[in-house]
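Hi, here's the filled form for the chain we discussed.

Project: internal
Contact: R.S.
Residues: 146
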Amino acid sequence: MDIPTHLNHRPIIKWENYSKTDGRFANDTDAQGLSVGVAQWNSSDENKPDISVKVWRHTGEKWSRQSEEIPPHRLVDMTSLLCSALMYVRNDVLLSDESFSITSSQDAILLEKLKEGLQKEEPFLESSLLRLAKMLKQLGYCDKLK
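And the returned structure, exactly as it came back:
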């Protein structure tokens, strides 16, 4: 499904037909596309546009107002948080530092639900995380860790 270009968020880089590859929701999702573009909250300064990432949802009849639009750094921060959760589930290690200060629940039942839920997601996460790792390497970020 083509992502609309007439709404306030103006897509520049698009992943159309995302519904076919939406992890365990593939072919049964309202998330029809992902995009990086000019944010709907864009400032009036055209020389410094605000960029956002967006999940495009479609109800079957119209584009949903429930489509999420967030600043790119939050998407990366959420991915970091997910990676920390994966490490915690696998090795009981919570990846954290001064600029990434996170904590975990002390509720054993919730921690077990996290473990079970992420194990269920693992087959779908693996291909996405491998793609991310490859792209980070191509962008030179892995070299900066040395």
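Let me know if anything looks off before we file it.
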